[in-house]
């Protein structure tokens, strides 16, 4: 099982007083976090090695996969996607998969994707969220 969490509080910790930010700024940060979450999920699904399609379908929000060749082992229970703290001081979105062999794929077992492709996506998402958060929080008057 692999799970990634993009935590808006960790990204904006350099800004003193997230708790003091106006609700409109927190709403914008939540919107940015959701956009980064969607981008990350799309990225991971686009680079996920595919044999049966179960791993790709399971990442984040459940997707059916190829309906012409459904995988009988695949189900919505494979998917991990949780949102917490919309517009609060502890915003967090977790995505991942309960498919046990994804860690093997991420370790480079398949030649379809480089080892560490999930962490590469996570790093990209973290940088993107930090950039978005900096633009948004500049709108806060000192």
Describe what this molecule looks like in 3D.
The chain has 142 residues and is of the alpha+beta class. 42% of the residues lie in helices and 13% in strands. Strands 1-3-2 form a three-stranded antiparallel β-sheet. Helix 2 (23-47) runs antiparallel to helix 5 (117-137). The longest helix is centred in the first third of the chain and has 25 residues, at 23-47. The radius of gyration is 17 Å and the shape is elongated.
N- and C-termini, Cα separation: 43 Å
How are strands sequenced across the largest beta sheet?
1-3-2
Count of DSSP strands: 3
Low-confidence stretches: none
Order of helices and strands: EHHHEEHH
Helix fraction, binned, reads 40-55%
What structural class do you assign from the helix and strand content? alpha+beta
Total helical segments: 5
Q: What assembly state would you assign to the polypeptide chains in this entry?
A: single chain
Backbone CA Rg: 17 Å
Biggest β-sheet: count, sense, barrel?
3 strands, antiparallel
Mean pLDDT: 83
Instruction: Kindly estimate the percentage of residues that lie in beta strands according to DSSP.
Output: 5-15%
Sum up the overall morphology in one term.
elongated
